[in-house]
DNA sequence: CAATTGATGTAATAACATAACATCTGCAAT
DNA sequence: ATTGCAGATGTTATGTTATTACATCAATTG
């Protein structure tokens, strides 16, 4: 998907996520944008909805948070599955993907005649620095 | 992990999940147990916490719901990663397990010196019946 | 201009989850 | 048996995440 020009609110939300060290909750984003006129959760959620659709932001289901894509423009994103390693201590997120994992999951899915729409792979644990 | 004798509340919550067609939210479980004296969310969440710990119930992160384990006693559960296919139309959940996926993810994790604690794999889409 | 479409603003509410504190129950040590 | 403890439970309140409903605004287009 080619990303269209972002609207004002979408840009504001995206900039906050890009500058952040780690994933942010929608309400944390809201707080960071109060000075820019944001007043209600919906302003954040609506922007996020589009940014997710454009593939420039990912949602981390297991921690109800959002993060800017670490590999913008990477073609794998369009058809591949993205995985995340999330440090439960420092919040650091690493985004990666593995074709073999994709293939195995999609092979299973095909066998079941299941029609996949969105796949979540999230590994929570401790990053190297925090595990030490 | 060997499952200890369940307490009254744990048994009630587990029975509701076992008899359910698909995954249930904590509040749905609460409603189903009002007749048995349940009054507050915490009664459900506390029971779920233990049932998750014993491995007889799984949490589906992407839909904030809980489901009874489909493969109780399966040894793979203790050390392997469980994956779920979730039908967004009828709610049906299929639990499966693929060693190759585990190996690939764990190999990646080792390479990063990341210490995994809990891994989530959830595929949302349409089951065979609903896709037709 | 009128109609449509997409974006935005605002208030209210729904849905999910935890904190804090009191009470009870079973069991072991004295 | 009494005391002390640990685990489970009950209850209220609160915190966090997400959506519904409705009004308004701006750009496009026929
Ligand atoms: Zn990405
Ligand atoms: Zn860390
Ligand atoms: Zn299971
Ligand atoms: Zn279905």
UniProtKB/TrEMBL annotation, chains A, B:
Family as reported in the entry's similarity comment? Belongs to the Fur family.
Is Metal-binding among the key words of this record?
Answer: yes
The prosthetic group or cofactor this protein requires is: Zn(2+)
Q: Which GO terms describe its molecular function?
A: DNA-binding transcription factor activity; transcription cis-regulatory region binding; zinc ion binding
What the entry lists under InterPro entries is as follows: FUR, Fur_C, WH-like_DNA-bd_sf, WH_DNA-bd_sf
Query: Know the name of this protein?
Result: Fur family zinc uptake transcriptional regulator
Q: How is the cofactor bound?
A: Binds 1 zinc ion per subunit.
Report which superkingdom the organism of origin falls in. Bacteria
**GO annotation (BP), single:** negative regulation of DNA-templated transcription
User: Which positions does UniProt annotate for Zn(2+) binding?
Assistant: 87, 90, 127, 130
UniProt KW keywords: DNA-binding, Metal-binding, Repressor, Transcription, Transcription regulation, Zinc
Q: Name a single GO cellular component.
A: cytosol
Can the keyword Iron-sulfur be found in this entry's annotation? no
Family matches, as Pfam families: FUR (PF01475)
């Amino acid at each position: 998907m080619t990303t269209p020009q972002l609207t004002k609110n979408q840009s504001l939300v995206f900039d906050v996520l890009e500058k952040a060290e780690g994933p942010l909750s929608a309400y944390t984003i809201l707080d960071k944008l109060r000075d820019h006129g944001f007043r209600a959760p919906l302003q954040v959620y609506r922007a996020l909805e589009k940014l997710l659709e454009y593939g420039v932001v990912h949602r981390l289901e297991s921690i109800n948070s959002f993060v800017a894509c670490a590999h913008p423009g990477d073609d794998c994103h369009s058809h591949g599955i993205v995985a995340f390693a999330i440090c439960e201590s420092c919040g650091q997120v690493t985004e990666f993907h593995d074709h073999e994992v994709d293939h195995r999951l999609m092979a299973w899915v095909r066998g079941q005649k299941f029609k996949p729409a969105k796949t979540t792979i999230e590994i929570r644990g401790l990053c190297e620095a925090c595990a030490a």
